[in-house]
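Input.
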Amino acid sequence: MIRTRWSGGRVLAAALTLVAAGGLCRKADAQEGRDEQFYYPGSFNWQFLRRYPDAARLFNAFDYGHAVLYEVLFTRKGDSGRDRLAEEFRYLTTDLLVRPPRFAIAEEAVMPSYAKSAWRAKEAFDWAHLLHRQIYDVYADPRIESAAKDSLIERLTDYYLSRVGYAFSARPKSMALMDEQYFSQTFRRFDPRFNGLIWAYHWLQVGLYEPFVRYRTEPEQKAAVQRVLSRFWAMLRDPPSRMPRAMPMAATIAPEFSRRHPRAAAIFDNLHMMHDIISDILASDSVPLENKKDVIYAQLRELGDSTRQVMTWEEWHHMGHMMGGADVMGGPVFDDETTAPR
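Output.
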Protein backbone atom coordinates (compact mmCIF):
# COMPACT_ATOMS: atom_id res chain seq x y z
CA MET A 1 0.00 0.00 0.00
CA ILE A 2 1.38 3.38 -0.96
CA ARG A 3 1.07 5.61 2.04
CA THR A 4 3.37 8.35 3.24
CA ARG A 5 2.30 11.03 5.69
CA TRP A 6 3.47 14.02 3.68
CA SER A 7 4.47 16.42 6.40
CA GLY A 8 7.74 17.83 7.67
CA GLY A 9 10.76 15.68 7.07
CA ARG A 10 8.78 12.87 5.44
CA VAL A 11 8.98 14.66 2.09
CA LEU A 12 12.78 14.73 2.30
CA ALA A 13 12.81 11.12 3.45
CA ALA A 14 10.75 10.09 0.46
CA ALA A 15 13.10 11.89 -1.90
CA LEU A 16 16.13 10.18 -0.35
CA THR A 17 14.34 6.82 -0.56
CA LEU A 18 13.70 7.43 -4.23
CA VAL A 19 17.37 8.08 -4.91
CA ALA A 20 18.44 5.05 -2.93
CA ALA A 21 15.87 2.69 -4.40
CA GLY A 22 18.01 1.32 -7.14
CA GLY A 23 18.26 4.25 -9.51
CA LEU A 24 14.67 4.54 -10.70
CA CYS A 25 15.45 7.68 -12.67
CA ARG A 26 18.55 6.16 -14.26
CA LYS A 27 16.60 3.10 -15.41
CA ALA A 28 13.97 5.29 -16.99
CA ASP A 29 16.69 7.43 -18.58
CA ALA A 30 17.85 4.36 -20.45
CA GLN A 31 14.40 4.11 -22.03
CA GLU A 32 13.73 7.76 -22.92
CA GLY A 33 15.56 11.05 -22.52
CA ARG A 34 14.64 13.60 -19.87
CA ASP A 35 14.94 17.07 -21.35
CA GLU A 36 13.76 19.10 -18.37
CA GLN A 37 13.31 22.88 -18.55
CA PHE A 38 13.59 25.49 -15.80
CA TYR A 39 10.55 27.58 -14.87
CA TYR A 40 10.26 31.20 -15.98
CA PRO A 41 12.35 33.30 -13.56
CA GLY A 42 11.04 36.40 -11.82
CA SER A 43 10.62 38.07 -8.44
CA PHE A 44 6.92 37.15 -8.53
CA ASN A 45 7.67 33.45 -7.99
CA TRP A 46 6.38 32.01 -4.68
CA GLN A 47 4.24 35.10 -3.93
CA PHE A 48 1.05 33.04 -3.89
CA LEU A 49 2.47 30.64 -1.29
CA ARG A 50 3.71 33.58 0.78
CA ARG A 51 0.43 35.49 0.76
CA TYR A 52 -2.17 32.72 0.38
CA PRO A 53 -0.66 29.66 2.10
CA ASP A 54 -4.02 28.01 2.82
CA ALA A 55 -4.78 27.85 -0.88
CA ALA A 56 -1.25 27.26 -2.18
CA ARG A 57 -0.52 24.30 0.08
CA LEU A 58 -3.66 22.52 -1.09
CA PHE A 59 -1.99 22.05 -4.46
CA ASN A 60 0.73 19.97 -2.82
CA ALA A 61 -2.01 17.66 -1.56
CA PHE A 62 -3.60 17.65 -5.03
CA ASP A 63 -0.29 16.48 -6.50
CA TYR A 64 -0.30 13.54 -4.10
CA GLY A 65 -3.90 12.74 -5.01
CA HIS A 66 -3.17 12.60 -8.73
CA ALA A 67 0.03 10.61 -8.20
CA VAL A 68 -1.41 7.96 -5.89
CA LEU A 69 -4.43 7.56 -8.17
CA TYR A 70 -2.27 6.72 -11.17
CA GLU A 71 -0.06 4.36 -9.20
CA VAL A 72 -3.03 2.45 -7.79
CA LEU A 73 -4.72 2.17 -11.19
CA PHE A 74 -1.48 1.19 -12.94
CA THR A 75 -0.55 -1.54 -10.46
CA ARG A 76 -4.03 -2.87 -9.55
CA LYS A 77 -5.10 -6.46 -10.08
CA GLY A 78 -8.70 -6.69 -11.27
CA ASP A 79 -11.01 -4.82 -8.91
CA SER A 80 -8.45 -4.73 -6.10
CA GLY A 81 -7.86 -1.04 -6.73
CA ARG A 82 -11.29 -0.08 -5.40
CA ASP A 83 -10.41 -0.79 -1.76
CA ARG A 84 -7.05 0.93 -2.10
CA LEU A 85 -8.64 4.02 -3.62
CA ALA A 86 -11.31 4.05 -0.90
CA GLU A 87 -8.57 4.17 1.73
CA GLU A 88 -6.71 6.90 -0.16
CA PHE A 89 -9.93 8.86 -0.54
CA ARG A 90 -10.45 8.80 3.23
CA TYR A 91 -6.86 9.81 3.81
CA LEU A 92 -7.08 12.73 1.38
CA THR A 93 -10.41 14.11 2.53
CA THR A 94 -9.95 13.67 6.28
CA ASP A 95 -6.19 14.15 6.69
CA LEU A 96 -3.97 15.40 3.87
CA LEU A 97 -6.27 18.11 2.51
CA VAL A 98 -7.04 19.25 6.05
CA ARG A 99 -3.32 19.49 6.88
CA PRO A 100 -1.67 19.86 3.46
CA PRO A 101 2.12 19.55 3.02
CA ARG A 102 4.19 22.69 3.36
CA PHE A 103 6.38 21.69 0.42
CA ALA A 104 5.83 20.13 -2.98
CA ILE A 105 5.93 16.33 -2.81
CA ALA A 106 8.33 14.04 -4.65
CA GLU A 107 5.72 12.54 -6.96
CA GLU A 108 8.01 9.81 -8.28
CA ALA A 109 8.18 8.47 -4.72
CA VAL A 110 4.38 8.18 -4.70
CA MET A 111 3.97 6.69 -8.19
CA PRO A 112 7.28 4.93 -8.99
CA SER A 113 5.80 2.33 -11.35
CA TYR A 114 3.66 4.77 -13.32
CA ALA A 115 6.38 7.43 -13.51
CA LYS A 116 8.87 4.89 -14.81
CA SER A 117 6.45 3.75 -17.50
CA ALA A 118 5.00 7.10 -18.64
CA TRP A 119 7.53 9.72 -17.61
CA ARG A 120 6.74 12.12 -20.48
CA ALA A 121 3.09 12.26 -19.43
CA LYS A 122 4.11 12.96 -15.84
CA GLU A 123 6.44 15.72 -17.00
CA ALA A 124 3.72 17.25 -19.19
CA PHE A 125 1.46 17.50 -16.14
CA ASP A 126 4.23 19.01 -14.03
CA TRP A 127 4.92 21.61 -16.74
CA ALA A 128 1.25 22.66 -16.95
CA HIS A 129 0.86 22.70 -13.17
CA LEU A 130 3.85 25.03 -13.02
CA LEU A 131 2.08 27.43 -15.39
CA HIS A 132 -0.94 27.29 -13.07
CA ARG A 133 1.18 28.22 -10.09
CA GLN A 134 3.18 30.93 -11.80
CA ILE A 135 -0.03 32.66 -12.87
CA TYR A 136 -1.23 32.58 -9.26
CA ASP A 137 2.13 34.09 -8.28
CA VAL A 138 1.71 36.94 -10.75
CA TYR A 139 -1.78 37.72 -9.50
CA ALA A 140 -0.70 37.54 -5.86
CA ASP A 141 2.20 39.99 -6.28
CA PRO A 142 0.96 43.50 -5.34
CA ARG A 143 4.11 45.09 -6.79
CA ILE A 144 2.93 44.39 -10.34
CA GLU A 145 0.40 46.72 -11.94
CA SER A 146 -2.80 45.19 -13.33
CA ALA A 147 -1.94 45.80 -17.00
CA ALA A 148 1.57 44.48 -16.44
CA LYS A 149 0.11 41.31 -14.92
CA ASP A 150 -1.89 40.63 -18.08
CA SER A 151 1.14 41.03 -20.32
CA LEU A 152 3.32 38.92 -18.00
CA ILE A 153 0.74 36.11 -17.99
CA GLU A 154 0.79 36.12 -21.80
CA ARG A 155 4.60 35.97 -21.68
CA LEU A 156 4.42 33.02 -19.27
CA THR A 157 2.04 31.31 -21.69
CA ASP A 158 4.46 31.85 -24.57
CA TYR A 159 7.26 30.39 -22.48
CA TYR A 160 5.11 27.39 -21.56
CA LEU A 161 4.27 26.73 -25.21
CA SER A 162 7.94 26.89 -26.19
CA ARG A 163 8.46 23.46 -24.66
CA VAL A 164 7.34 21.44 -27.65
CA GLY A 165 6.35 17.87 -26.88
CA TYR A 166 5.26 18.65 -23.32
CA ALA A 167 2.96 21.66 -23.73
CA PHE A 168 -0.76 21.14 -24.18
CA SER A 169 -2.36 22.97 -27.07
CA ALA A 170 -3.47 26.57 -26.54
CA ARG A 171 -6.49 25.84 -28.76
CA PRO A 172 -9.58 24.24 -27.22
CA LYS A 173 -9.69 20.57 -28.14
CA SER A 174 -12.79 18.50 -28.85
CA MET A 175 -14.50 17.01 -25.80
CA ALA A 176 -14.87 13.80 -27.81
CA LEU A 177 -11.27 13.04 -26.87
CA MET A 178 -12.36 12.70 -23.26
CA ASP A 179 -15.83 11.24 -23.67
CA GLU A 180 -16.09 9.30 -26.93
CA GLN A 181 -13.09 6.98 -27.21
CA TYR A 182 -13.30 3.24 -26.60
CA PHE A 183 -11.85 3.60 -23.09
CA SER A 184 -13.69 6.84 -22.20
CA GLN A 185 -15.63 7.30 -18.94
CA THR A 186 -14.25 4.08 -17.46
CA PHE A 187 -12.81 5.68 -14.34
CA ARG A 188 -15.89 7.70 -13.40
CA ARG A 189 -17.82 4.40 -13.37
CA PHE A 190 -14.99 2.56 -11.58
CA ASP A 191 -14.83 5.10 -8.71
CA PRO A 192 -17.29 8.02 -8.93
CA ARG A 193 -16.22 9.46 -5.57
CA PHE A 194 -12.53 9.70 -6.45
CA ASN A 195 -13.45 11.02 -9.88
CA GLY A 196 -15.59 13.71 -8.23
CA LEU A 197 -12.67 14.62 -5.99
CA ILE A 198 -10.40 15.11 -9.01
CA TRP A 199 -13.01 17.34 -10.64
CA ALA A 200 -13.32 19.32 -7.40
CA TYR A 201 -9.54 19.89 -7.58
CA HIS A 202 -9.91 21.17 -11.14
CA TRP A 203 -12.79 23.45 -10.15
CA LEU A 204 -10.58 25.08 -7.54
CA GLN A 205 -7.56 25.32 -9.83
CA VAL A 206 -9.42 27.47 -12.37
CA GLY A 207 -11.84 29.09 -9.94
CA LEU A 208 -9.08 30.69 -7.88
CA TYR A 209 -8.22 33.04 -10.73
CA GLU A 210 -11.54 34.88 -10.52
CA PRO A 211 -10.93 36.70 -7.20
CA PHE A 212 -7.83 38.32 -8.69
CA VAL A 213 -9.42 39.52 -11.93
CA ARG A 214 -12.71 40.63 -10.38
CA TYR A 215 -11.44 42.46 -7.29
CA ARG A 216 -8.87 45.23 -7.16
CA THR A 217 -7.55 45.53 -3.60
CA GLU A 218 -5.59 42.88 -1.71
CA PRO A 219 -8.08 42.72 1.21
CA GLU A 220 -10.94 42.14 -1.25
CA GLN A 221 -8.95 39.49 -3.06
CA LYS A 222 -8.05 37.69 0.15
CA ALA A 223 -11.68 37.67 1.28
CA ALA A 224 -12.77 36.36 -2.12
CA VAL A 225 -10.12 33.60 -2.07
CA GLN A 226 -11.50 32.45 1.29
CA ARG A 227 -14.99 32.33 -0.21
CA VAL A 228 -13.72 30.17 -3.06
CA LEU A 229 -11.98 27.84 -0.60
CA SER A 230 -15.19 27.56 1.43
CA ARG A 231 -17.08 26.50 -1.69
CA PHE A 232 -14.43 23.89 -2.38
CA TRP A 233 -14.70 22.44 1.13
CA ALA A 234 -18.48 22.32 0.78
CA MET A 235 -18.03 19.99 -2.20
CA LEU A 236 -16.33 17.41 0.02
CA ARG A 237 -19.33 17.04 2.34
CA ASP A 238 -21.39 13.91 1.72
CA PRO A 239 -19.40 12.81 -1.35
CA PRO A 240 -20.09 12.61 -4.19
CA SER A 241 -23.46 14.39 -3.94
CA ARG A 242 -21.95 17.92 -3.91
CA MET A 243 -19.01 17.21 -6.17
CA PRO A 244 -18.95 18.21 -9.85
CA ARG A 245 -20.92 15.90 -12.13
CA ALA A 246 -19.05 17.10 -15.23
CA MET A 247 -15.50 18.27 -15.82
CA PRO A 248 -15.25 21.96 -14.83
CA MET A 249 -14.62 24.09 -17.93
CA ALA A 250 -12.49 27.21 -17.55
CA ALA A 251 -14.79 29.46 -19.58
CA THR A 252 -17.72 28.47 -17.33
CA ILE A 253 -16.06 28.48 -13.91
CA ALA A 254 -13.58 31.33 -14.55
CA PRO A 255 -15.25 33.39 -17.31
CA GLU A 256 -13.40 36.64 -16.68
CA PHE A 257 -9.99 34.98 -16.55
CA SER A 258 -10.85 33.03 -19.70
CA ARG A 259 -11.85 36.23 -21.49
CA ARG A 260 -8.54 37.88 -20.62
CA HIS A 261 -6.34 34.86 -21.22
CA PRO A 262 -8.11 32.39 -23.51
CA ARG A 263 -4.90 30.56 -24.44
CA ALA A 264 -4.04 29.76 -20.83
CA ALA A 265 -7.65 28.79 -20.11
CA ALA A 266 -7.68 26.40 -23.09
CA ILE A 267 -4.38 24.89 -21.95
CA PHE A 268 -5.89 24.16 -18.55
CA ASP A 269 -9.01 22.59 -20.06
CA ASN A 270 -6.78 20.36 -22.21
CA LEU A 271 -4.66 19.50 -19.17
CA HIS A 272 -7.74 18.52 -17.19
CA MET A 273 -9.09 16.47 -20.09
CA MET A 274 -5.77 14.62 -20.22
CA HIS A 275 -6.06 13.85 -16.51
CA ASP A 276 -9.41 12.19 -17.20
CA ILE A 277 -8.12 10.40 -20.28
CA ILE A 278 -5.18 8.86 -18.42
CA SER A 279 -7.42 7.77 -15.54
CA ASP A 280 -9.71 6.08 -18.07
CA ILE A 281 -6.83 4.36 -19.88
CA LEU A 282 -5.39 3.05 -16.63
CA ALA A 283 -8.78 1.89 -15.34
CA SER A 284 -9.89 0.31 -18.63
CA ASP A 285 -9.48 -3.41 -19.16
CA SER A 286 -9.88 -2.69 -22.89
CA VAL A 287 -6.31 -1.33 -22.87
CA PRO A 288 -3.85 -4.14 -21.99
CA LEU A 289 -1.20 -3.23 -19.46
CA GLU A 290 1.60 -3.60 -21.99
CA ASN A 291 -0.15 -1.10 -24.30
CA LYS A 292 -1.09 1.56 -21.76
CA LYS A 293 2.08 3.63 -22.22
CA ASP A 294 1.69 3.76 -26.00
CA VAL A 295 -1.97 4.73 -25.75
CA ILE A 296 -1.18 7.43 -23.17
CA TYR A 297 1.60 8.86 -25.33
CA ALA A 298 -0.67 8.88 -28.40
CA GLN A 299 -3.21 10.90 -26.40
CA LEU A 300 -0.48 13.22 -25.16
CA ARG A 301 0.50 13.97 -28.76
CA GLU A 302 -3.15 14.55 -29.66
CA LEU A 303 -3.72 17.01 -26.81
CA GLY A 304 -0.62 18.92 -27.85
CA ASP A 305 -1.64 19.18 -31.52
CA SER A 306 -3.30 22.50 -32.41
CA THR A 307 -4.25 21.39 -35.95
CA ARG A 308 -6.55 18.43 -35.20
CA GLN A 309 -9.83 17.99 -33.35
CA VAL A 310 -10.05 21.59 -32.19
CA MET A 311 -13.14 23.64 -31.39
CA THR A 312 -13.68 27.22 -32.47
CA TRP A 313 -13.42 29.78 -29.70
CA GLU A 314 -17.17 30.41 -29.97
CA GLU A 315 -17.89 26.69 -29.58
CA TRP A 316 -15.58 26.56 -26.59
CA HIS A 317 -17.32 29.46 -24.86
CA HIS A 318 -20.70 27.76 -25.34
CA MET A 319 -19.54 24.24 -24.48
CA GLY A 320 -20.04 24.69 -20.73
CA HIS A 321 -23.64 25.76 -21.25
CA MET A 322 -24.27 22.72 -23.47
CA MET A 323 -22.86 20.48 -20.73
CA GLY A 324 -25.26 21.89 -18.14
CA GLY A 325 -23.51 25.04 -16.96
CA ALA A 326 -21.71 25.77 -13.72
CA ASP A 327 -24.29 23.92 -11.63
CA VAL A 328 -23.12 20.51 -12.89
CA MET A 329 -19.45 21.53 -12.63
CA GLY A 330 -19.39 22.27 -8.91
CA GLY A 331 -21.27 25.57 -8.97
CA PRO A 332 -20.24 29.13 -9.79
CA VAL A 333 -17.27 30.66 -8.02
CA PHE A 334 -19.40 33.49 -6.64
CA ASP A 335 -23.02 33.20 -5.51
CA ASP A 336 -24.08 36.04 -7.79
CA GLU A 337 -21.85 36.19 -10.84
CA THR A 338 -23.65 39.25 -12.21
CA THR A 339 -22.87 41.52 -9.25
CA ALA A 340 -19.21 40.68 -8.71
CA PRO A 341 -17.13 43.88 -9.24
CA ARG A 342 -15.10 44.01 -12.43
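The CA atoms of residues 174 and 266 lie 11 Å apart.
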